[in-house]
Amino acid sequence: MNPQAKELNTIIRDNNTMLFEMLSERGRNIFFPKKGILGQTADAKGKKINATIGSAIEDDNTPMRLESVEKQLNISPSLAFPYAPSYGRPDIRKRWKELIYIKNPALYGKEISLPIVTSALTHALSMTGYLFLDHTDSVLMPDLYWGNYNLIFTNAYGAGIEKFNLFRDEKFDLESFEKSVTNMKSGKKIILFNFPNNPSGYTPAVNEVKSIVSILRNEAEKGNMIIAIMDDAYFGLVYEDGIEKESLFAYLADLHENLLAIKVDGPTKEDYVWGFRIGFITYGIRNGNKALYEALEAKTAGAVRGSISNACNLTQSLLMNAYCSEEYQPEKSEKYSILSARFRKVREILKTGKYNDFFTALPFNSGYFMCIRLKKGLDGERLRYLLLDKYDTGVIQMNDLIRIAFSSVAESDIPVLFENICNACREISS
Ligand SMILES: Cc1ncc(COP(=O)(O)O)c(C=O)c1O
After folding, report:
1. Which of 323, 357, 391 is the last residue of a domain?
2. Are 273 and 159 members of one domain?
3. What CATH number is given to the structural domain containing 249?
4. How far apart are the first and last CA of the chain?
5. Alpha helical stretches, state H, 44-170
6. Residue 117 belongs to domain spanning
7. DSSP reduced 3-state for 345
8. Both 137 and 181 in a single domain?
9. Using only C-alpha atoms, what is the Rg of the chain?
10. What is the pLDDT of residues 148-159, one digit of tens each?
11. Probe ligand 1: pick from 118, 121, 197, max atoms within 8 Å of CB?
12. Which atom of ligand 1 is nearest to the CA of 266?
């Protein structure tokens, strides 16, 4: 093992032996190479003649660049063309951390790590797998989940996926959750929470979140190691009262010394920049101190360095500027209102009961999506094709469930969308 990895492992073990045990084999071996090219480059920063960095500079010391590219950008070349650090730009890391506290008041007074920048959430989840998943591990998640978790956790790291029922009687199925957590192989229990959920558009109610936290506390108190991964891709898009508006991370970040909370989030959906490819990984654990968090950050940055080297500098800079501008919050509120109005339109349509012969809606209160369950005898794939061919309408089919992204349909088109689904259902059922 590289001595730099050993050094990080010692810091982690000295602070929390359980946390060291949570690391995967890869996670134990990884480190951020301080001493090689990166370290020597850092030592030479600011020198009159700097022949260390693997990028090119103009004679005036600014980044070398093509006019055909530069003329499209309204930003200083220094914020766009050079590499960003593997940890991410220090300014956006600091700002994102501040924003996490602002968006999650329950985190007040709890110490968390500085976020590490990734190439959006998919990559952040993959890096989480890199650091904490061995092929002998399984990840517990709701039975309704984003299909890409299979590729991220199973194909890449060989981990299994275990499921609990998300719903029972139109509510979060606490019983199934508790039973599944308890029944997981004792030792290291890895649980993934994605609320607002893709595909259902569900976020648990405030009291349900309290119960989830209490179940996890019990498990940790029994001596199990718990890794709770929060995929907060759709954070902030909760449309109903009584539904939890903060991330579960806020309640888990200092819950117990045996429980590591990992927040995976980013601007992809929160700030409507799907193609920018920026995300963050942030850690929280009871008694997590600076040394412990810095060791975890170094391991995470090492994993980033070994996968994508570093995330896009240009998009980090654009976002950082937005996060410091006065227009950012009002503009976000405006977009929230548009999505919220679409959500309410779907609710209003379903309330009429007009479509009950063909489908029923699964609980939904947040995010981009909602799902309908087709009545027995209606074939989802046939329905999908008919909608495409005859009704000029696209939806996602998952057996008897149809996922509807109301986020991507104008409010005025939502009644037509449901009318089309209903008519297509009528056709295939006759
Ligand atoms: C639940 C969930 N997590 C993560 C992602 C991936 O986000 P990103 O585009 O930032 O990689 C998605 C995208 O659809 C998602 O639905």
Report:
1. 323
2. yes
3. 3.40.640.10
4. 67
5. 67-70, 90-103, 120-132, 148-149, 156-157
6. 3-32+86-323
7. helix
8. yes
9. 23
10. 999 999 999 999
11. 121
12. 10
> Whose Cα sits closest to atom 7 in ligand 1?
121
Lookup result for tokens 């994993």: 303
Residues 112 and 174 placed together within one structural domain of the fold: yes
- 420 in Cβ contact with 387 (< 8 Å): yes
Whether ligand 1 lies within 6 angstroms of the CB of 120 is answered as yes
* Cβ 372 vs Cβ 408: under 8 Å: no
Q: How many residues does the chain have?
A: 430
**Beta carbon of 268 within 6 Å of any ligand 1 atom:** yes
- Give me the pLDDT at residue 48, please: 83
- Ligand 1: distance of its center to the CA of 234 in Å? 8
Structure confidence by residue, pLDDT tens digits, 319-364: 999 999 999 999 999 999 999 999 999 999 999 988 999 999 999 9
CATH number at residue 412: 3.90.1150.10
The verdict on residue 66 lying in a domain is no
> Do 395 and 404 touch, CB atoms closer than 8 A?
yes
Q: Say yes or no: CB of residue 229 within 6 Å of ligand 1.
A: no
Question: Is the domain of 352 the same as that of 222?
Answer: no
Together in a domain, 269 and 310: yes
Looking at the structure, do residues 240 and 383 belong to the same domain, yes or no? no
Between β-strands 359-361 and 369-374, what pairing exists: parallel, antiparallel or unpaired?
antiparallel
Query: Cβ(279) to ligand 1 under 6 A?
Result: yes
CA distance 126 to 107: 25
Cβ of 146 less than 6 Å from ligand 1: yes
The pTM of the full predicted model, rounded to 2 decimals, is: 0.97
